[in-house]
Amino acid sequence: MKRIICLLAAAFLLTGISLYAKPRIRIIATGGTIAGVSTSPVSTAYSAGQVGIQSLIEAVPQLPLLADISGEQLVNIGSQDMNDAVWLKLAGRINELLNEEDYDGVVVTHGTDTMEETAYFLNLTVKSDKPVILAGSMRPSNAISADGPANLYNAVAAAVSPACRGVGVLCCMNNQLLDAKAVIKTHTIDCDTFEGGPSGIIGYIYNGEAHMLQTPNNRHTFRSVFDVSGLEKLPEVGIVYGYANASALPIKAFADAGFDGIVLAGVGDGNFYKDVFDVAVKAQENGIQIVRSSRCPTGPTCLNSEVDDEKYHFVASLDLNPQKARILLMLALTRTHDWREIQEYFKEY
Ligand code: DGL
User: Fold this and answer.
1) Residues 30, 33, 112, 125: which is the catalytic one?
2) What is the pTM of this model?
3) If both were cysteines, with which of 51, 114, 137, 234 could 79 make a disulfide (CB 3.0 to 4.6 Å apart)?
4) What pLDDT, in 10s, does the model give residues 287-304?
5) Sign of torsion, CA 277 281 286 290?
6) Hey, is 138 helix, strand or coil?
7) What is the domain extent for residue 135?
8) If 0-12 CB within 10 Å is exposed, 13-18 middle and 19+ buried, where does residue 147 land?
9) Which of 223, 252, 284 is the last residue of a domain?
10) For ligand 1, which residues put their CB under 6 angstroms from it?
11) Same structural domain for residues 215 and 74?
12) Distance from CA of residue 53 to its chain's centroid?
């Protein structure tokens, strides 16, 4: 008997078969440049969303060393075409994989143009503390030094890492792990385009291992109150860009169309031109929630600063840029239309 046990142990050791099952990681593909194909390896002309999930997985033969990998194709689009319907489907599928099919983590391959928005939407709607990691690329799949395969490998390495559990949704690009709330795309073409200020880079991947530097202090995922499981659509919220001598036509159009909320990408600390301001006050009086945010790439939009939010019942977006403020306002409006309650959500999430 002893001889048999020794032989079995030797067989396991020699063949490298682990006595322990590897983590089960599901990769959901949505398109983007990571699935893009260029006309030639040196050309910048390319189309996103051309390559399927199996090709993405086959381009990284080392993935099975990390995890028990499987994949599925949700959509195959440029992420400039990302929309509420895909978001609702993606959140529902991730919750199903993590909470009903018992996967240990999910990786989402995604275009970089709206990756920060999808990451934040999932940060508010995924009901699990298991790792959910988004990965993309800035160079198409057939470009010289395509960055997609390495980003995908690193994203799976993060998804199997216990250190990436309970920290909310992350983006994994260029060896860095970025927090869903703070991450922003800052450069149109550079591979290191994703940043996020002091709370953005919360870790990094090195040698296939995740190393965490900090943990987010806002509510997210398993501690989020937002539940989209029964929703077919989301409230309508538009964004109005602020600038000198701004026309009030865009905000009027949203108001006349009966939008549920309007986010103002204002100048400075969420200020806007007087003609726009007057329409915003009227819209708020008519039940359209106004959120002041800023076109400035960094810094908070503060409550009751140059604008008396208390007086007008406006909400200040605090640390959220306009595109993320829009997401939180949409989800907040599924629960309340009370501006004070909505402001509390902006303080927590
Ligand atoms: N069409 C853009 C997108 O899918 C390409 C940018 C990229 O994925 O890096 O977001």
Assistant:
1) 33
2) 0.94
3) 114
4) 999 999 999 999 999 999
5) positive
6) coil
7) 20-223
8) buried
9) 223
10) 32-33, 48, 78-80, 111-113, 136-138
11) yes
12) 19
